[in-house]
């Protein structure tokens, strides 16, 4: 595919979020717990494997990770069950914003997120407000170049987009996540980004004033423990 700046923006935004999350055990642990709801064996659950790797990079102790997995699988009957939720709205300059939440209290999460929207020139909306503007995709990025053999293997595994203008960025349907992960393992390559993400179908550009206000809003959302990821239609 031809180069698109959206992939660089996605990687930069993801890197910024991960840097902040590195100081937050809460978000890393919740990510493991949610991923474990799909199965507690990282070898069989690619999403859990990614979550565990992220937690390890964030220096989360092994026993803490193991407890999060047990909570996710339901082995720990006394633990409050974490739930995922998706919140939608517009930021400054009419930028579409999707907020993924992992929380044990949806009412608290919705109230806190709505407050951030209203305080920073945004507009909090109901279900379906902006979700239609995004596609859910499996997204990976690796440094360097992808050989022809690797690109063919990725396409066979379900990759629909491969961008090699700045490193290699790969996107495919959500259901191809495990297969694409396996291809990288077969080629002994470790992606610096591997996640299920909301990718904007179209993007918008902002004035410097709106951009500054949007950044304040994104920073405030990132600081909420109940918020796991934030996606925008920013160009």
Keyword list:
235 residues; four-stranded antiparallel sheet; Alpha-Beta Plaits; single chain; alpha+beta; 43% helix
Summarize the structure.
The protein is α+β, with helices and mostly antiparallel strands and 235 residues long. The protein has eight helices and eight strands.
Tell me about this structure.
The chain has three domains: 5-73, Integrase, N-terminal zinc-binding domain (Arc Repressor Mutant, subunit A); 83-132 and 202-232, Alpha-Beta Plaits (2-Layer Sandwich), CATH 3.30.70.980; 133-200, Alpha-Beta Plaits. With 235 residues, it is of the alpha+beta class. The protein contains eight helices and eight strands; from the N terminus they run H-H-H-H-E-E-H-E-E-H-E-E-H-E-H-E. A hairpin with a 4-residue loop joins strand 5 and strand 6 (168-173). 43% of the residues lie in helices and 22% in strands. Helix 2 (25-36) runs antiparallel to helix 3 and helix 2 packs across helix 4 (62-73). The strands form two sheets. The protein has a four-stranded antiparallel sheet. The chain has a four-stranded antiparallel sheet with strand order 5-6-4-7. The mean pLDDT is 86.
